[in-house]
Amino acid sequence: MDQSANPPHSIRQATRAPSETVAFALMVAILLIAPFFTYPLFLMQVMCFALFACAFNLLIGYVGLLSFGHALYFGWASYLAAYSAKAWGFTPELAILTGTATAAVCGVVAGSLAIRRQGIYFAMVTLALAQMMYFFALQAKFTGGEDGIQAVPRGHLFGLIDLRNEAAMYVVVLMIFLAGFLFIYRVVHSPFGEVLKAIRENEPRAISLGYKTDRYKLIAFVLSATLAGAAGATKAIVLQLASLTDVNWPMSGEVVLMTLVGGLGTIFGPVVGAFVIQFMQYKLAVVGEWVLVIQGVIFVACVLLFRRGIIGEIANWRRIRL
Amino acid sequence: MFEVFGIPSTALFGQLLIGLINGSFYALLSLGLAVIFGMLNIINFSHGAQYMMGAFAAYLLLKYSGLGYWPALIVAPVLVGVTGMIIERLFLRWLYKLDHLYGLLLTFGLALIIEGVARNYFGSAGLPYTLPDSLRGGQNLGFMFLPNYRAWVIVASLAICFGTWFVIERTRLGAYLRAATENPTLVRAFGINVPRMITLTYGFGVALAAFAGVMAAPIYNVSPQMGSELIIVVFAVVVIGGMGSILGAIVTGFGLGVIEGLTKVFFPEASNTVIFVIMAIVLLVRPAGLFGRSG
User: Fold this and answer.
1) In this structure, what are the phi and psi dihedrals at residue B44, rounded to the nearest 5 degrees?
2) Which residues of A touch B281 (CB under 8 A)?
3) B140 in a structural domain
4) Do A123 and B284 touch (CB under 8 A)?
5) What is the DSSP code string of A141-169?
6) Closest chain A C-alpha to B173 CA, distance in angstroms
7) Average pLDDT of the residues of chain A
8) What is the pLDDT of residues A12-40, one digit of tens each?
9) What is the pTM assigned to this prediction?
10) Looking at chain A from residue 155 to 214, which residues have their Cβ under 8 Å from any Cβ of chain B?
11) Which chain B residue has the Cα nearest residue A253?
12) ipTM of the complex in this document
């Protein structure tokens, strides 16, 4: 990635910036208070997409790999979670685990193919593989084709807590989101994460220092796919629906858009981006097809004018790490 | 009429023909992508949308100005090519010094805008485009029926593909182009206007896509989403062939079209995915692509 678009990591590399602690506390506080003021279902959906975008950002923001096929992991995890909950009667935690594991397996296979090519080809390979799996989803019997898997039971968490209760469901989604978020934070700030950033900045140099960069890239890819799967599986349980929308290429584009709007390579950017884009789609549902045009305009504007994204611009302006 | 592996020959050759037609679109589009990538270092995600613009331009020319197929075959690519040049001047030229990824993201955004606008004005359903009289009918070759129009599409795209190859590889203009791809600064020092060449190259690549779109209009319905699914397959074609070689792009395009057509005969369930599967195999066996240099 070029210098101008890079978030200001290089300015400071403290162990933990106070700005991050404050922002994290603020985010948790907002997520705890918000359900009293707006629809919890909408917020749960936002958290699922936020986790999805954070997972995607782990690749683009910290390894510099643009995956244009992340809908594969999100969508297939949501199918398997929905199917196992509905047809096999899995409890929600097992259904989500099933979906997440599916995404991890897909991530291993697709990742080991995709990392064989670099840069722009990487994006094309991931997109093509995702499209292949979209066609499988379209043709497979268990996915329900155009109808998707509807009326997925939310079930009882650990067989005890009834998730049809909106508050219980909200707490579960919040826990999954925060766990995923903190895990990514931990990965990014670990020695492993430092190697990832080294690969992003200068891969040949990382190789010459003796790092097996392909292995690092594959692990990052699988982690990203798995977390994207966790997001998709949770979404299937929350909205009680898995459909072709989740595996098709516009979904892959949407997660790119959310991350770009929030800020590539920032910890909080994807969360803010997910909220902004979901809120926009919710408000703009009335204008129908114009949503596509508006998304396109945001893409163009972000690339030409705000390559750092919302959080990246704030971080750069306040000279803090977010 | 005879049978091959238990498949009637008419069905087999019919699908082969469809495969060749699809292959000619793959070849034209991946050729355009390769030319643009060589010069601009940008993967043009809006290529599919510009192919769709070509088809719509033909449709609108016929409907509102009465220009038929033959004039549209020239006028539509020129019009779409000009919009491409405007896009290059307004947007793309700011990205050449940045990472490749931003070019992909920007042109993806442009593709969404173009497709969204088309959906708003024309709906998602396909619009029919009537064939010119001169290309109706067909020839009975004994083993199969060959519609004239399909024969024309294959011949025309082969001609355009090899014409492009000839211009780039065998003429002075092409030599400037190849030199500017290798080292733009040096070529500028010789007094050649490289930025203008870049603009024209992008316009030409886009015009190729629009040309394919006009030829596709009578075969497929003209619809806003006709480009987006095609472009993903073309990406796979580009990954398989590699973008280093013009001839490679042409051969890979036609070859994969034929393979896809044959898959439709022998194993129809896999016809949508066969190109992606081949891509996966090529990545395993020859990561740089069949004709590609590494990278």
Assistant:
1) -85, 90
2) none
3) no
4) no
5) TTTTGGG-B-S----EETTTEETTSHHHH
6) 27
7) 91
8) 454 567 888 999 999 999 999 999 998 99
9) 0.91
10) none
11) B108
12) 0.90
Per-residue pLDDT, B287 = 83
Q: Which helix (H) or strand (E) holds A193?
A: helix A191-201
Summarize pLDDT for B36-60 with one digit per residue, the tens.
998 888 999 999 999 999 999 999 9
Contact of A219 with chain B, judged by CB distance below 8 Å, is answered with: no
Cβ-contact A62, A197 below 8 angstroms: yes
Does any CB of chain A come closer than 8 Å to the CB of residue B237? no
User: Could B295 and A119 be called an inter-chain contact, meaning their C-beta atoms sit closer than 8 Å?
Assistant: yes
Query: A320 CB contacts (<8 Å, ≥6 apart)?
Result: A17, A19
pLDDT for the residue A195: 95
pLDDT at A162: 86
| Secondary structure element (H or E) that encloses residue B4, with its range | strand B3-4
Which of B98, B58, B112, B65 minimizes the C-alpha distance to B80?
Answer: B58
Chain B partners of A60 at a C-beta cutoff of 8 Å? 101
Domain hosting B149: range is 3-119+145-285
Flag whether B78 is in a domain: yes
Could you read off the pLDDT of B3-24 as tens digits, one per residue? 666 677 777 888 888 899 999 9
Interface A-B: count of C-beta contacts within 8 A: 134
Task: State how many domains chain B has.
Answer: 1
DSSP assignment of A50-61, as one string? HHHHHHHHHHHH
* A interface test, pick of B102, B234, B263, B278 with most A CB neighbours within 10 Å: B102
CATH of the domain at B55: 1.10.3470
Cα distance between residue B56 and residue B47, in whole Å: 14
Tokens encoding A212: 């097996």
Q: What is the pLDDT of residue B181?
A: 85
* Domain contains B138: no
**Which residues of chain B have a pLDDT value below 50?**
294-295
